[in-house]
Design a protein that fits this description.
The chain is an alpha/beta fold. 39% of the residues lie in helices and 19% in strands.
């Protein structure tokens, strides 16, 4: 990534300073984390991917806070690292940053095991993902490829002890914590005066990726929409800064647009099923809505559609055409589930 945005300072309504620091994540998508000064000890929000390149960029950005902005701060002064959610681009660099700073770590309870017992959680999640692929009707070869790639970026991450639990409603040195599940079980948004540090809950351009709750609880479109409403009810937010992309200046309008986009996608799932002459699996619906992708993007397409099918099914909008075949009571074998619109 040759054109990372520079370190930039933002100031809250009471004069607290927030520094935005960018790092490489993937082509056409950089990551953002934030240094908060003035609200208790120096606090870092998120930790990057853990790649040597990203960690070097983060350390260089943190160093620039002192050298370019005149703050009496060195990266080693960080005493707290708060994780908005346990996805690899937000916590992958945590172990190295803790080694360099000795900072304590905070995360929501529902994401804490991913941080402190990562291989345990990865093994359990992989089992759930394998079962999901069977139910979704993914063919054997594609299923093997997707399962092989699942969690690959997390397999070598170090676990880190968790010192603080970022529970909903708690405030730490004026940093107010809002539990906003949907994109991950323990996703939190952090309100600092009139600035919301939103992780991946609200982005300025992208519609946040959704996952089916059959893979991870407290994800799913239903939880995500409830969390959007929770943020919408917070008065006086002047600026939202997320884990990617530029800041959001009018969060209330952005929430309206995000909600409308999700419902358009839900309607497209319904249209595909209405136009089909027979019930369809999640994989078949995905094939109608997305061009066939490979590896990572195929995974995103499949889980996105699954979250919408799950949302409709939970609300009685769909019927399962083959409930007697979904799982063998004696062997436990899982069969593809076929859906139609409940007329």
């Amino acid at each position: 990534m040759s054109n990372l945005p520079p370190v930039k300072r933002f100031t809250t309504s009471s004069g607290l300073r927030i520094y935005r620091i960018a790092f490489e994540f993937m082509p056409n998508l950089s990551g953002r984390l934030y240094l908060l000064l003035g609200a208790g000890p120096p606090t870092l929000i998120d930790a990057g991917t853990g790649s040597p390149t990203a960690t070097a960029q983060i350390w260089e950005g943190l160093s620039a806070v002192g050298s370019e902005f005149g703050e009496p701060f060195r990266p080693q002064d960080i005493r707290r690292i708060l994780i908005t959610h346990a996805h690899v681009d937000h916590y992958g660099g945590l172990a190295e940053l803790v080694r360099r700073t000795g900072a304590e770590v905070g995360v929501h309870p529902l994401d804490s095991r991913t941080i402190c017992a990562g291989q345990e959680r990865l093994a359990i999640a992989r089992q759930a993902f394998a079962s999901f692929l069977m139910r979704a009707g993914v063919s054997g070869e594609d299923r093997a490829q997707l399962l092989d790639g699942y969690g690959r970026t997390k397999r070598h991450l170090e676990s880190v002890p968790v010192d603080l639990l970022l529970e909903d409603g708690r405030a730490i040195d004026g940093i107010r914590i809002f539990h906003t599940p949907g994109h991950s079980p323990g996703h939190v948004c952090l309100l600092v005066d009139d600035v919301l540090l939103a992780g991946d809950h609200i982005l300025s351009r992208t519609i946040t990726q959704q996952w089916p709750e059959s893979i991870a609880p407290y994800t799913g479109l239903g939880h995500y929409l409830e969390s959007l409403g929770k943020v919408e009810r917070i008065p006086g937010i002047a600026l939202v800064m997320g884990g990617h992309e530029p800041p959001v200046r009018d969060v209330y309008k952005r929430i309206e647009n995000i909600r409308a986009s999700h419902f358009r996608r839900v309607d497209r799932v319904l249209r595909v099923l209405r136009e089909s002459s027979q019930p369809m699996t999640i994989d078949e619906i995905t094939g109608q809505l997305y061009d066939r992708q490979s590896s990572f993007y195929a995974f995103l397409a499949l889980t996105d559609v699954a979250s919408r099918v799950e949302y409709l099914d939970e609300r009685g909008r769909l019927a399962v055409a083959n409930p007697e075949e979904s799982q063998d009571a004696e062997t436990g074998a899982v069969s593809p589930v076929r859906y139609s619109v409940d007329r």
